[in-house]
């Protein structure tokens, strides 16, 4: 391949660097503000002139941050586990057997893409209320225990698995469940893990439903608690940015550790 | 246990003669018919309870009046909700805003990312992965965190945007962006676009690397310029991805803006930044008018259904696949 003239290369790097600055600047400003004291916060210094940590301690005093973080992890992990479990079983059934009604199942699954959450929120809210699960983690998790996005993504990964091997295992007398857990899963575990990461991030960032279900900070995931804090203390910008920094940290740390895999899994599976 | 016995209960694959005798054979056939459904059961039950039951119930509520108070029954009102909905001014405004968000998000989700991906195509080396990793960060951040940060950047007195604009002399007095009708919806659009642009760029870049570079070499030997190559090779071969992103963007833009509207402006000032989903939410949980909200849901379920069917047939007609 022929080499590009340097001007083109400079243009390319320039454009991409500009995009990076646009993407990251708000985060940088959040971090910067979270260390500024009350007299510096409204000035536009690019580094805090006298960095302080009291914004963080104030945020931790005002909100049960650790409790909310525990809630967030609980909700996201439970959602991911349930969605993977129901998704694996369903995707396996769809790949493994040809049966009557399969087209109907695919139609039912694809149709859920068209159902906005706002058109099912009232009945679901009423149901969770009737079950007495308001203000509970299970109340947040249950409506998200199955994800058609997970089922269809897993279906796609399962299809790449050679059918011949399944047939061979079947002739060897492996049970159906054994074929799923001992043959297919170990071979596609990296796709399952990638999907799991997306599901976890989706769970962590879920907004409308947890907001409807939890009204008290100690029952709320971090995101909802942060919203309550934003609306209550609108002039403590230093500690608000400290709280926001803390709310971004878990996802950013996960991202830092697994960035290649996360980017690839989003590219492979898309978003919901 | 010998394998032969186990084999009798294992479901034979289609076309393979079963190894069992007549009576167990009938049983195993019934079992075989049932098996896929057994595996599908958890997913189907949950989808039934949390997706399709509520959807039908929403359809039912659309023709009723109900304030969601436990112990009260929905009251049948026929098409009343729909006729009042179509006369409701705030709902009419929200439709206009929904179109605004949907159309103006397209530059952020399609046009700019496609151009960026094309310009940076064939970039080599480590830097490419660094850019990819950084572009992605806005996408994975939670809407509430993102809203908090932007709210601070656009703060009416001490926010960086106002401070910088005043220092540079563009404005004399700080602007209260979120309570100014001429700014609020633009800021919400900007935030949604900011979150989307890096992600779309990566999606398009990934699709571009799938295009065989021989097409470009052949085209440039035939004397096609880079603009011509873009329109004649890149766009047609990328069309599946373009239509995919188009569908996502159109179907979900109203969902993506929802959280920012709720946190930053609650639809205001004077309903200038609201969208249809936010109005549905307000009808239900502020006005406690479940029927009204359900009628709006039903209406837009149909509207978005028609749009996505149209996009689906578009993708069948206009997608060129590189075999």
Could you characterize the architecture of this molecule?
The complex is a heterodimer of chains A (272) and B (323). With 272 residues, chain A is mainly α. Chain A is built from 13 helices and no strands. Chain A is globular and about 75 Å long. Chain A starts with 5 loop residues before the first helix and ends with a helix. In chain B, helix 2 packs across helix 13, helix 4 packs antiparallel against helix 11 and helix 11 runs antiparallel to helix 13. With 323 residues, chain B is mainly α. The two termini of chain B are 50 Å apart. Chain B contains 13 helices and two strands; from the N terminus they run H-H-E-E-H-H-H-H-H-H-H-H-H-H-H. Chains A and B meet through helix 1, helix 3, helix 4, helix 5 and helix 8 of A and helix 1, helix 2, helix 5, helix 6 and helix 7 of B.
What is the compact description of this entry?
The complex is a heterodimer of chains A (272) and B (323). With 272 residues, chain A is an all-alpha fold. Chain A has helices spanning 6-34, 54-62, 65-96, 102-111, 121-130, 137-141, 148-159, 163-171, 176-187, 189-205, 208-213, 222-232, 237-269.
Descriptive labels:
heterodimer; A: 272 residues; mainly alpha; 13 helices; globular; B: 323 residues; two-stranded antiparallel ribbon; 2 strands; disordered N terminus
